[in-house]
Amino acid sequence: MPTSRPSHHSKPWWTPHLTILRREYHKTARAVRKHDTPYMREVAGTSKGGYFKAVKAAKNKHWFSFLLTATPQSLWTAKRFTFGRAQPRFPSLPRAEIPQQMNNVLLDHFFPPKEPFSPPPRLRPHRLVPPLTTDEIATALSNCSPTSAPGPDGIPYSTWKQVNKINSSILLQRLSPLVLLGYHPASLKSSNGVVLNKPGKCSYESPSSFRIIVLIRTFSKILERIIAARLLTAARLRRLLHPNQCGSLPGLTTYNACPTLTNDIKTLQRPCLKVSSLLLDIKAGFDNVYNNTLARILRDGGIPPYLISWVSSFLGERSCTLIFQGAPGTPAAVNVGAPQGFPISPLLFLLYVAPLHFGIPRGLMISYVDDFTLTVASLSYRGNICRLQELLERLERKASRLGVSFSVAKTELIHWRTPSQRHLPKCVSPIQIKGEMFHPGNSVRWLGYWFTPALDPAAHFSRRLALAQGAFALIRRLSPPGAGLPPYLCHRLATSLIAPILLYGAGLFTPSVGTTNRLDTFWRKVKRWTTNCFSATPTGILTVESYLPPVSLLITHRQRLAALRVVCSPPSVNPATARLLPSFPSLSAHRAADSSRALTRGLSSVYLPLKWKTPRPVPPIRNHLPVEAVAHRTIPFTLGLSRMPMINSHLVCPTPVLPPQSLMDNTYSALKKRIRETLLTEWASLYPTPE
Fold first, then answer.
1. Residue 664, Cα to own-chain centre: how many angstroms?
2. Is 445 helix (H, G, I), strand (E, B) or coil?
3. CA trace torsion 497, 500, 501, 506 (10° rounding)
4. Which of 203, 336, 609, 679 is the most buried (most CB within 10 A)?
5. What is the dihedral of CA 518, 523, 529, 535, to 10 degrees?
């Protein structure tokens, strides 16, 4: 039998002293088995206890030594060691006894059979195809993460980046024919599907308790990013994407969708209308993208033929090899619609569901990828229920023509109220959908934001505080009092891990004084952990030494940055920017056609338009619409500017006459610098540096 040669990485905490103690421990254990006397048992017990205590001490010493010498690169490794990793569960399915049967059950669940694809046409070069350039390839590679897991060929992005850096013609010569032919070869459509269990499931006897992470070749992803950039430009030019579609698009985040929703709710409430919303979710959205239907949508929209041919080729003839413990490792042909996790799949899905959008008089339809929201207003909540049912039936008819449906279990209803209505009885009118009754909720979660009928921010921040406390309870073990990570690494964890969890949504919601005090109390605990200070350390000294501003200043800073992104975005792309007043000094005169601002005309007692040159609006800003109040935060930083710069102007099709993009980018960076300097100035005035 060959001698075992364990790696020196397996037990880095092992020392020669432990070797001597282990030898002595085994020696006394053998002596007890040979001469079982009270004295020998006592000696063996002492030897055993000393050995295991020495092992524990060696592990702790090595762990603290690792933390003290940690670098920013090894910081997240320490975090992973602290959090631990759950053991992967082996799929145990009732109808599968052998790995091949288990493989087939998982394939049938994750890749159910769909309509067969039409045979691919004969390959021939398309006409009027813009030639591929090295700049397009460089841009696609710049958006690729070097830590992304490679596909079946095992080639990471870093290899292709080095190849393109040394000789840019290599990738150009290999990708140009595929773009010219509008073809995605079958060799690039094979993938590995890693089967992982979903955490927190009570039972793992169903395929729904598992998920699949699909890994494809990085070369294929580079081509997908190039086609996605061209397809997005063509779709914007031909208006195939609805203005109220957010998510998975450049320059659009959850913050753009949520202010749009709250702004329209407040606008509809100004003329004393009752407002209700129905939150919907498309069931298995990406899997229900049919190749022929998507090709018809693109063809009717005037997309160039070579892009349509490439998309049809990309969606068909795919194969996947499932990877789990004991998997047979045989590739299987799958029909997955738009495969999830691929760079171009979100854009294909948005183009596929764009026809579902339609205008709603005295209402709003807005979506974020597969999450749709219907908002209506009338003189009563019962009238809203009737309108929502009619609109839902219309939406489901349009969805059935596309082969998609909405998940009934994820449907939520909420009736919005103004703060002055908090003393009135709540409306409990439900809505009936497919035989099920849905009662209005006291709070709903949409895109990570928690909304209450009165749009109270306390409900959102109380949940964010609980999540931040849970994360802090885990990472605080990395730096116990008097040991652990250096302070600068603790500061990095606080700013990159705890602060984003705690302050998510601060750009939209402004917490009350009581809620801010609760957040600040927790934030002071983080500061003490960062600096390893005593509990009696004064707050002013603690704030300066930890270099962590107070929560109130951080919230204001995030609100200013979010407001700057809104006012500098193209109105034709960002639905929140499109709801600004026409008098706002932007470079584009485009405004939303479905805005309900016309309902506020003549309502001087409850609504006054903001004057952009007034630093302190009178009356208070609460009498203005949310998007206007957001934009007004940028006025102190725009002194000397006649117009706001426009970021992501390349997304506007057709491109209007604008200043050079480099000039607008520099202006935007200068505005962000002013906001940061204002944060530092306010921080210094609130907590001056102790002398």
1. 27
2. strand
3. 170
4. 336
5. -50
Tens digit of each residue's pLDDT (9 = 90 or more) over 211-263:
888 888 999 999 999 999 999 999 999 999 999 999 888 888 888 899 999 99
Among the ranges 22-36, 299-313, 570-584, which has the highest mean pLDDT value?
Answer: 299-313
Report d(CA 132, CA 144) in Å as an integer: 19
- Least Cα distance to 468 among 437, 499, 514, 428 occurs for 499
Which contiguous run of DSSP H or E holds residue 106? helix 99-110
Closest CA to 627 of 581, 658, 682: 581
Q: Where are the alpha helices (DSSP H) in 356-483?
A: 381-402, 457-475
Q: Give just the sign of the alpha carbon dihedral 525, 504, 349, 221.
A: negative
Q: Is 72 helix (H, G, I), strand (E, B) or coil?
A: coil
Can you point out the beta strands (E) in 264-343?
Answer: 274-281, 318-323, 332-334
Per-residue b/e over 539-574, b at no fewer than 16 CB within 10 Å? Answer: eeebbbbbebbbbbbbbbbbbbbbbbbbbbbbbbbb
The CA-CA-CA angle for residues 318, 323, 324, to 5°, reads 150
Query: Cα-flanking dihedrals φ and ψ of residue 451, to 5°?
Result: -110, 135
Q: At 95, list the tokens.
A: 């109808």
d(CA 372, CA 392): 11
Within 10 angstroms of residue 596's Cβ, the number of other Cβ atoms is: 24
610 alpha carbon, distance to own chain's centre: 33
pLDDT digits (tens, 9 = 90+) for 269-285: 888 899 999 999 998 78
**Interatomic CA distance for residues 407 and 146, integer angstroms:** 36
State which H helix or E strand residue 416 sits in: strand 412-416
